[in-house]
Amino acid sequence: MTGRPPNRSSISRYSLCGLLILASCGCAYRPTIQHPKSEPIKPEATAYDCGQLDAALLKTDTVRWVIRDDGGTLETSGHRAARYVGNIFLVPLSFYALGPVYANDAGSAVLDAADHRILELLRLKRAHGCPAGITSEPGMTDLQMLEALEPLMPDDGTPDRPALDRRTALLDHLRAPLPPPAVASPPGP
Amino acid sequence: MVRLEVGLILVLLACGCAGCTTRVYAPDTASATQSLKIRVGDEVRVVTTNRDRMTFEVTQILDDRFAGVTVEPNAKETRPAGVDVEMPYDSVAMIQVTRFDPKAATAAAVGGVIMVTVALGTLVLTGVPVIIPP
Q1: Looking at the partner chain, which of A12, A45, A65 has a beta carbon nearest the beta carbon of B51?
Q2: Single pTM value for the model
Q3: What is the DSSP code (8-state) at residue A188?
Q4: Residue B89 CA to its chain's centroid (Å)
């Protein structure tokens, strides 16, 4: 049998292409600043008054906005499992071709933590009888948004893609519209 | 060869970052921001509740805010370097603090010495250069 000898350079080329395709799964997520994992609500937060709850909501929403602005998205449990399996092959292969490469979670863990912190803060706001705040979602206050979010964020079980997308779309509009940035006036005479 | 080069790169990286620690916080309240003990000379990257991003070196610590001068802007930051800024504690949503830490510097130096020793030891003991596959 006189088969062609294996062409190592083409094999390397294919493995390189495969690695690039796999690695590109998380390419849209590029943190411009380290993303903190939002902590669960501490016991002292239950004593916050309405103003403090709104301030905490504003800050957690800002953290969430940074993650989203840097390309963060939620992943399903199926996607996560596929990523783990893919990394088992990708990491050893990448040492051979490029250097350590792996598919990241696209900010899912930090975004999920921020989402749940917002949910808990909204629940506290409702429990304290605080006045509802306006959001960017037409015809919906933040407490109405809480009612819509609760079925999408069960304490147990793993939401599917449509539920994650709906939750992300709602929380992207939690904050009231920002005022337009101040325009610098020209120096006076 | 490759092992040695990797070792040297790691040593250079360790030396380049020697003694600098970077931590990020998301303080809930003004007092939580104050308790971070920001110091004059720290370089901080801040995202405010107005979604404004900036990096500056702290020059002054006051009761309700800290002040500083912006440095070379990072990605998505719009303020040029050299602008005076004042940052009220209650408007900080996220803050990343980079500061020189003597303990980290010592650890980095010790780590660098260990890495050089291991890299050279590996080369001397094996004596076989590792060739990068085509």
Answers
A1: A65
A2: 0.74
A3: P
A4: 21
